[in-house]
Amino acid sequence: MVAGKKKHFNLLVIEDDPADVDLMREALGPSSDADLSIHLSVIEDPERVKNYLLGKDPVPDAARPDLILLDLNMPRKGGLEVLKELKGDEQLRTIPVVILTTSSAAEDVDRCYQLGANGYVTKAKDFSEFLKIMKTIEEFWFKIATLPKT
To answer: Which distant-in-sequence residues (6+ apart) come within 8 Å of 106 by Cβ?
Structure first.
């Protein structure tokens, strides 16, 4: 990264648990890296995701995400269904989706990758481990990986 040139990233979190969202905000708060800025948007209702991403459900300051963190276990519409919708849509399939969930079941992992997930991470039980996971996601996706522009 070129010194002095701040990189901005949009992260969309699809998560219905406000406590988990708060932990993510804290973990990804102002980065110690002055060259990195992450704007975190949250959708708690998985039924709104596709319309939100296609601009049919406008939200203030909404921007196409560079990365989506998706929980699997949500009411009304589960993460697997959301993932299938995202990866089945020509306009949305290039957005990387990382599953961030409590499930470590092999069938969930396999199914997510079959549906096109770009990563699968099991949530940590304590804050310090959760913080490490979030910092690793930040490091990989926003500093190491090259993300699609469309």
So the answer is: none
